[in-house]
Design goal:
Length: about 290
């Protein structure tokens, strides 16, 4: 059964480790992440962007697939199914479809409107026992054409949103989505520390986990980050392993064209990436 991310993240914050959010794109992705979490006895958050939700034909399909898979694979570790960077309308759809967690990304609204919409969603998610992630200070990346230094959130705005009763808070601290450019200046620990000072026990979320050096990840966890989002890294690992399989001509040997064989190296590569991240984040054995 899917669970809210609240308990797993409060435990993580108190225990000084982080739970990984791994975004899913299809059956192979979902299976690889769930199996790895179970093998390593780690809590896990499955992230679904609005685009990936559409790709998988809709949120109800996603909920059906994940629930069915958890039952068939006997997954007993805590699993949250979470909407990543949701619009207000997308949040309402996922609540309806049976997600256990949502992120409302109101970072592009003026702070007053972000507060108003977040307040509304706090009420609805509390009634349903779901977790809610809010974002302050937009996180850059290819999507909106921001290259270079990611934005840093205003710690006072973070405190204002945290006080609304959200479960976890994503704040821009110089992080960005996708691959980091060569001239990236690194995470702003000064900002992160200021945010943690003001928001206390609130689990903080680090987006754009791909390519952040390990020592920076560890330092971020020590300063209150309890959830780290990983997306691009699994995509790169999957693509690389699949390309190698094809380039080696293995799809032309015997029944190597069978999708169950063709997609297997990519799925194994996702598993290896998820394992590496769970070890780095410290969530192994914490289910
Ligand atoms: Zn993000």
């Amino acid at each position: 059964m899917l669970v809210s991310a609240k308990e797993m993240l409060q435990k993580a914050k108190a225990g000084h480790y982080a739970v990984g959010q791994f975004n899913i794109n299809n059956l192979e992705w979902t299976k690889a992440i769930l199996q790895t979490a179970q093998e390593l006895n780690s809590p896990v958050i499955l992230g679904v962007s609005e685009g990936a939700g559409k790709y998988m034909t809709g949120y109800k399909t996603v909920v059906g697939m994940v629930n069915g898979m958890m039952e068939e694979l006997n997954i007993t570790v805590p699993v949250a199914l979470h909407l990543d960077h949701g619009s207000y309308e997308g949040c309402l759809k996922c609540i309806e479809a049976g997600f256990s967690s949502i992120m409302f990304d109101g970072s592009h609204y003026p702070i007053e409107e972000n507060v108003a919409k977040t307040t509304e969603l706090v009420k609805i998610t509390a009634e349903k026992g779901m977790s809610l992630e809010a974002e302050v200070g937009s996180i850059g990346g290819e999507e909106d054409g921001v290259i270079g230094k990611g934005e840093c959130a205003d710690p006072k705005e973070c405190k204002a949103i945290a006080d609304l009763g959200v479960t976890m808070l994503a704040a821009g601290i110089g992080n960005i989505h996708g691959k980091y450019p060569d001239n990236w200046e690194g995470l702003s620990f000064e900002t992160l520390d200021a945010i943690q000072q003001l928001t206390g026990d609130m689990p903080l979320v680090l987006h754009g986990g791909t390519g952040i050096p390990e020592d920076m990840i560890k330092k971020a966890i020590s300063l209150g980050v309890a959830k780290i989002n990983v997306n691009t890294e699994c995509q790169l690992a999957f693509a690389d392993a699949t390309r190698k399989y094809i380039e080696a001509g293995k799809d032309l040997e015997g029944k190597g064209f069978d999708p169950r064989k063709l997609l297997a190296p990519g799925a194994e590569a996702i598993k290896a990436t998820v394992k590496e991240k769970m070890e780095l984040f410290g969530s192994v054995g914490k289910a």
